[in-house]
Amino acid sequence: MALCLTNVRSTWRRAIPLSAIYSHSKAMCFSPAEFHAISPNLEFSPDCDEAMKERLRGNMKVHEDFINAEEEKNLLEELELKFKRSRYQYDHWDDAIHGYRETEKPTWNEVNNNVINRLRNFAFSTTTMQHVHVLDLAENGHIKPHLDSIKFCGNTISGISLLSPSIMRLIHIQRPEIFVKALLPRRSLYIMKDIARYDFNHEILSNNESFFRGEKVTKTRRISVICRSPPPSS
Ligand code: OGA
Ligand code: MN
């Protein structure tokens, strides 16, 4: 089944003003070094208690260097051909994404297919949708907080980041003071599932908000190669 990109995201409308969230992020507590070592790519808000941290660690994982530079280059070569004639989209205020182009890719050349299969076998215990979603975010682009539609996507979303690091922020839908930032390095893989996928909305921060543990993370153009599990009924 094709993914129906126009339907996959439902933009989350915030119940509380953004300023409340930003004031938290500036006051982010630093935990001891040994604590960071457990999940070095996650930064929790001060209101995130130990039990929630533990659940998030199990449901939002980042694996650094999932692909090497050669594999990244091969993927980019195939994707540049695919994107050659399409333009970045900025226009619509209600879109979940600003400054992007995207495609669904059903097939890959043999070399890249091996990488996609490695992703599938590594991140999913079930089958995945045949079409791989590729999202090319411009340097000045960002993804606003949203949930992937439960009608078009199952419990696991996993993506490889090409070209640039970025910050994905997950904010608890019922309790927005609970949030976590995930540092997604270039060539890493993230796996978001279960509570991280259903109880939190997710977003990719714009370059001017892109900080992790107080350090600026410069986001340039970023391409993500994303697989999703199918919704339960399909
Ligand atoms: C999406 C999305 C994340 C990413 O397209 O719904 O959340 O890694 N993408 O690009
Ligand atoms: Mn999404």
Keywords, separated by commas or semicolons:
234 residues, alpha+beta, eleven-stranded antiparallel sheet, two-stranded antiparallel ribbon, 7 helices, 27% helix, binds N-oxalylglycine, binds manganese (II) ion
Q: How many strand segments? A: 13
| SSE order, one letter for each helix or strand | HEHHEHEHEHEEEEEHEEEE
Shape descriptor reads globular
Rg on CA atoms, Å: 17 Å
Major sheet: size, sense and barrel closure? 11 strands, antiparallel
- Structural class comes to alpha+beta
Q: Helical stretch count?
A: 7
Overall pLDDT metric? 88
Q: β content, as a range?
A: 25-35%
Low-confidence stretches: 12-28
Describe this structure in words.
The protein is α+β, with helices and mostly antiparallel strands. The protein has helices at residues 5-8, 18-26, 33-38, 50-59, 69-83, 110-123, 194-198, and strands at 9-11, 42-44, 60-63, 97-105, 132-148, 156-162, 166-172, 179-184, 189-193, 200-204, 211-212, 215-216, 222-228. The strands form 2 sheets. Strands 1, 2, 3, 4, 5, 6, 7, 8, 9, 10 and 13 form an 11-stranded antiparallel beta sheet that branches. A hairpin with a 6-residue loop joins strand 7 and strand 8. The chain is globular. The model is unreliable at 12-28 (pLDDT under 50). N-oxalylglycine (OGA) binds at residues 8-9, 135, 143, 148, 159, 202, 204, 224, 226.
List strands and helices in order, with pairings.
Elements lengths: L4 H4 E3 L6 H9 L6 H6 L3 E3 L5 H10 E4 L5 H15 L13 E9 L4 H14 L8 E17 L7 E7 L3 E7 L6 E6 L4 E5 H5 L1 E5 L6 E2 L2 E2 L5 E7 L6
Antiparallel strand pairs: 1-5, 2-8, 3-9, 4-5, 5-10, 5-13, 6-9, 6-13, 7-8, 7-10, 11-12
Bound molecules: N-oxalylglycine and manganese (II) ion (MN).
The site of N-oxalylglycine (OGA) has 10 residues, from strand 5, strand 10 and strand 13.
